[in-house]
Amino acid sequence: MAAALAGQYPAAARAVLFYGSCLRERQLEGLMLDFYLIVSDYADAYGKSWMVRANRLIPPNVFPFQHDGLVAKYAVLSQADFHRLNGPETVSVSVWARFAQPSRLVWSSDAQAAAQAVAAVARAAPTLLAQARPLYSGSDPLDLWRLGFQLTYGAELRSERKGRAMSVVDADPDRYTRFTTAALSAADLSLDRPITPAERRRALGRWARMRRSGKALTVVRLIKASGTYAGGIDYLAWKINRHAGTEIEIRPWQRRWPLVAALTLLPKLLRRGAIR
């Protein structure tokens, strides 16, 4: 499936990564698979110039994909953006929060592309722990990971139920235990050194900025997706129903005007607590 996805971008595809809850599933029929497509450059990937600008200004672009009876969505990032967005230089949590979790490199154009994708992903876990460490006063590595994911889930508009951040770690605690030493070392961190009040204040301010920008960016990406993601309003409803236990039904007018529908649904979902 990853090779078929890459085949749609023969001049640009460099790597395909598989991530998300479907990594833990054996039965994939009826589920929405999640991929990241890493391309050499946006200009190489698209024939439409507005797609190039959209991907550069508000990465990533997200598209639906079907192959051999399975359905997926995939996000497109350039190699440069993928490397940058996995690191601490960005205030957006969306990429490094996901790739601090398990993922699989399932296709690459060559050994160099594979190595570059691995190097970018290797930045994600140290970034998450570095951002969470100043707000953690305990000694249990797994609780540090849990706090990190709890903070990142709060920095985006998400439809998952409360406790989802905890379940990410609890699904594979051995994995996070193994990763801790290397990730802390890469970030030049230790659980033994006390955090100063000044470090904590700076971290609280940074997370406040990341929450404000992250939730606003989620809305902007939703607006952009109305132009790139066919059937996006149905996917949005499916995802919220699946994770929040709601029963949203999309009407015909909402499919004709997905942007208007999304913007009218958003306040209702916020009031009901379906997304946070």
What do you see in this structure?
With 276 residues, this protein is α+β, with helices and mostly antiparallel strands. The protein has one domain: Beta Polymerase, domain 2. Helix content is 54%, strand content 13%. The protein has 14 helices and five strands. It has a five-stranded mixed sheet. Helix 4 packs parallel to helix 6, helix 7 (124-132) packs across helix 8 and helix 8 packs antiparallel against helix 9. The longest helix has 32 residues, at 197-228. It is globular. The relative contact order is 0.11.
Quick rundown:
The chain is an alpha+beta fold and 276 residues long. The protein is built from 14 helices and five strands.
List the helices and strands and how they pair.
Elements: H1 2-6, E1 13-19, E2 32-39, H2 42-45, H3 49-57, E3 61-67, E4 70-78, H4 79-85, H5 94-99, E5 103-108, H6 111-121, H7 124-132, H8 141-153, H9 164-170, H10 173-186, H11 197-228, H12 232-244, H13 252-256, H14 258-272
Parallel strand pairs: 2-4
Antiparallel strand pairs: 1-2, 1-5, 3-4
Stated plainly, the CATH topology is called Beta Polymerase, domain 2
| Low-pLDDT stretches | none
Q: What string gives the helices and strands in order? A: HEEHHEEHHEHHHHHHHHH
* Shape, principal axes of CA atoms: globular
DSSP summary, beta strand count: 5
Distance between the termini: 33 Å
CATH architecture: 2-Layer Sandwich
Number of domains: 1
Please estimate the helix content. 40-55%
Content of β-strand: 5-15%
Across the major sheet, the strand order is: 3-4-2-1-5
Instruction: Please give the largest β-sheet.
Output: 5 strands, mixed
Rg, rounded, reads 19 Å
Treating each run of at least 4 consecutive H or I residues as one helix, how many helices?
14
User: What would CATH call the class?
Assistant: Alpha Beta
